[in-house]
Amino acid sequence: MSAGLFSEFRSNLSVKNADEISASYRKITKKLNGKYYDSESDTSHCRQVGSYGRRTAVDGVSDLDMAFVLPWDVYERFNKYSNNKQSALLGEIRKELADLYPNKTVRAQQQVVSVDFGTYIVEVLPAFENDDGSFTYPDANDGGNWRACNPIAEIEKIDDLHKSTNSNLKRLCKMVRAWKNDHGVAIKGMLIDTLCHNFFEQTNDYDEATYKDYKSLVRDFFAFLVEQDEEQEYWSAPGSRSRVYKSGNFHAKAKKALRRCSEALEDETLAHEKWKTVFGVHFPDLENEEERQQGYQEEFINDKFSLDIQYTLRVDYSVESVGESLRALMSRVIDYRLPKEKKLTFYISEIDVEPPFKIYWKVRNTGPEAIARKMQRGKIVVDSGARQITERSNFDGDHFVECYAVKNGVCVARGRAVVPI
Question: What is the span of the domain harbouring residue 234?
Answer without folding.
Answer: 154-254
